[in-house]
Amino acid sequence: MEQAVHTMAHHKRPYADYQAKNFLWQVSEDGKVATITLNRPERKNPLTFDSYAELRDLFRGLVYATDIKAVVITGAGGNFCSGGDVHEIIGPLTEMTMPQLLDFTRMTGDLVKAMRACPQPIVAAVDGICAGAGAMIALASDLRVGTAQARTAFLFTRVGLAGADMGACTLLPRMIGQGRASELLYTGRAMTADEGMAWGFFNALHPSDAVLTAADKLARQLADGPTFAHGITKKLLHQEWNMGVDEAIEAEAEAQAICMQTQDFRRAYDAFVAKQKPVFQGD
User: Fold this and answer.
1) Which residue segments constitute the domains of the chain, with CATH numbers given?
2) 125 neighbors 72 (Cβ within 8 angstroms)
3) In this structure, how many other beta carbons lie within 10 angstroms of the beta carbon of residue 239?
4) What is the full DSSP assignment across 222-242?
5) What's the pLDDT tens digit per position in 147-197?
6) Phi, psi at 208, each rounded to 5°
7) What does the pLDDT look like over 84-102, one tens digit per residue?
């Protein structure tokens, strides 16, 4: 009797048929690019306890997705996300015990951790209001495209809380610098689109009717690239903040040696020799 060959494939599954309950989930025809749309436009797409938890669990699950190679996250109706819903989250929080509050704050932080840990690059398409937890979702994404109307506010202090929320005090200074981050986190004021572009928060600005198309195009470019290698890049962009220079260089040496064993590396070489464009498959 032949012994079964284990490939670890039984731990993974496609996510094209994922049925979202608290937002919209759409996947391209080839199954490679997924779009998450926060879909409560009448209230500027606020988050609820359930949408926080579902987004966290979805990004955790994408680690095991066999099909999704890049993710776009956006909001419906001309706004990205207004943060936690005042009536469905803020109100109930005022009645909770400290252990219950800690369960909540850890859950919101776990969403950011899950976004950073999934191998797929995440592209945020930001229009209009992008505030509180919405600003953190945009910040936790790998790339951000915005519009002239985008207003990004880490407004936690405006509801009597610290600017330290969901990793803001570590992620925002890395993105825009300590001094600028300090101003935004202390004052809670909105960062304009032009400031976001000049300070490195946004990768590009587009008209409102073109920003989602631009995000899709960028995600498609990434999904058609060497996606295994993109996952390595994402991991080391995150991890190397905690390394010294020598440790980072060694980590990259090991990572690149791993990537040199992939079929995509061979495909790129063969295509170069044949004067053709490589067709990457992510393996």
Assistant:
1) 9-223 (3.90.226.10), 227-273 (1.10.12)
2) yes
3) 14
4) HHTS-HHHHHHHHHHHHHGGG
5) 999 999 999 999 899 999 999 999 999 999 999 999 999 999 999 999 999
6) -55, -35
7) 988 889 889 999 999 999 9
